[in-house]
Amino acid sequence: MFISDIRKEFYEVVANQRVALLVSSDIDALCACKILQALFHCDQVQYTLVPVTGWQDLGTAFLEHKEQFRYFVLINCGANVDLLEMLQPDDDSIFFICDTHRPVDVVNVYNDTQIKLLIKQDDDLGKTLLRREILFDYEQYEYHGTSAAMMFFELAWVLTKDTKDMLWWAIIGLTDQWVHDKITHMKYVTDIATMQRHVSRHNHRNEDEENSLSIDCMRISFEYDLRLTLYQHWTLYESICNSCYTSCSFKLWTLNGQKKLQEFLADMGLPLKQVRQKFNSMDMTIKENLRDVIEEASNKYGMKDIRIQTFGVHFGFKNRFLASDMVHATAALLESTEKDESDSDNFIKALDSLSRSNLDRLHSGIELAKKKLIAIQQTVASCICTNLILSQGPFLYCYLMEGTPDVKLFSKPMALTLLCKYLLKAFVHSTRNKRCKLLPLIMAAPKDVEKGTVIVVGITPESETSDKKNFFGRAFEKASESTSSRTLHDNFDTSIIELKTEDRSKFLDALITLLS
Fold first, then answer.
1. What's the rounded Cα separation, in Å, for the pair 103 and 123?
2. What is the DSSP secondary structure assignment for residue 401, as one 8-state letter?
3. Does the chain have fewer CB atoms within 10 Å around its N or its C terminus?
4. Does 137 have pLDDT greater than 60?
5. pLDDT at 338
6. Could you tell me which of 461, 445, 348 has the C-alpha nearest to residue 400?
7. What is the helix (H) or strand (E) element at residue 477, kind and residue range?
8. Molecular function terms in GO for this entry (predicted)?
9. Residue 333 DSSP SS3
10. Residue whose C-alpha is closest to residue 100's, from 140, 133, 145, 54
11. Which residues are registered as beta bridge partners of 225?
12. Which domains are delineated in the chain?
């Protein structure tokens, strides 16, 4: 059932209990977790934190903890399946589910005793579920609702326990949905406005307390900033080359695109020496009105929306981060393939990087994120230059072969999804075929060479106005059933699956038939 009073029906219920927190591996979930942990510390609520990477993990985590715990909080997992059917819990287990995955399974909506949904109902069809044909349509598509971190921030606010750190985590949770393309532009702008009201409230509240900018203070500000990834922690040149927005607009994988970029830089009157050195070391005079200079030149080159509404933070004097810097850094730590560390090691590191007491960890995440962005950029260039994107009728398809540089990085769901979005945008910019511009993209990459599996992800067509509703989850299920392909539907996002490498072609053929 949907909970209407999150304070009374959730927080006051668990406040005197021991709680198991089952947290999905995405940035919004990590941020929601940080907020809830801070509240629990504040009220001395005992909890155990268990990271879960997929349905199998969730099942195992539940089995291991069901004897000691009655109350389970699930963050960004559990809403879109019949949870009781899946976990088979005893009658006294209670599940509080704060999950952005839609559609919510109808059985969860109608269970009044064990399932408590911490979900905004306006995000969902809620009441209209009763009509059969609506129900069918509703369950066909996957999409995302309000950020889990925002939901828990709202709880903190209702409890009058919200801090600036919690507010910053809620902003990062929302920004994660934008960076990983989970919500519509309209939803993003609406939620940004909500966060902006909280930011002004906090800044107003703190004006009296800290007029001096002390070493350990924290200031959040609304920014109309550049869509140049990590530019304040990189060189301007590298950021322009490795940001999806600029790279696709210039078509940087072509010689002509490289030439255009040089003209663009000359147009802004920025000396190459300046754009090729660390942003921090650039002349103050250049940095002061850099955003305006770049915006003006970008307009001339057809990049009309190089700026985006977002937030930045200052920690003390010298550390400044944009919300998107945080998302990229944390994601790179969460899916790090550098050392053979376990998922839960990476989870803890990523969680740490969100605390302002751990700036070293955050900086190491930023370095990893740069490597990842360069790898994505180079992979996009090589896929387009070697025509690896095939039109399969109802969709585009691209397969990354074993042995491709950086292929290990793309065995991870967030990295592959980001590559997929980026590749589709680049392809749409570079193809002359009108029909292809409207197609969704399916991408496959090696997952586990020993087991002979690939990871497959499907994304919706590239468009600014897209409703971000993804139909691949249901299609993957049907294609797998009709061909008895050996697939694993373990990801909380149904549009990401694992597949036996040798079943790839029959699975694809079935998809083509199904979607034609």
1. 10
2. P
3. C
4. no
5. 82
6. 445
7. helix 472-483
8. chromatin binding; DNA replication origin binding; single-stranded DNA binding
9. helix
10. 145
11. 308
12. 6-162 (3.90.1640.30), 217-374 (no CATH), 388-515 (3.10.310)
3-state SS, one letter per residue, for 60-111: HHHHHHCCCCCEEEEECCCCCCCHHHHHCCCCCCEEEEECCEECCCHHHHHC
Whether pTM exceeds 0.90:
yes
Coil, strand, or helix at residue 447? strand
Residue with tokens 């309000």: 146
> Model confidence over 188-229: pLDDT tens digits?
999 999 999 999 999 887 665 555 555 568 999 999 999 999
Cα distances (Å, whole numbers) of residue 76 to 4, 24, 70, 351: 19, 6, 19, 15
Q: Round to whole Å and give the CA distance between 385 and 456.
A: 22
What's the one-letter identity of residue 240? I
Tokens of 123: 């995000």
Write the pLDDT tens digit of every residue in 400-458: 998 888 999 999 999 999 999 999 999 999 999 888 889 999 999 999 989 999 999 99
Q: Hey, what are 270's tokens? A: 């920025």
Token pair of 95 as six digits: 């599940």
**Angstrom distance (rounded) from CA 380 to CA 416:** 12
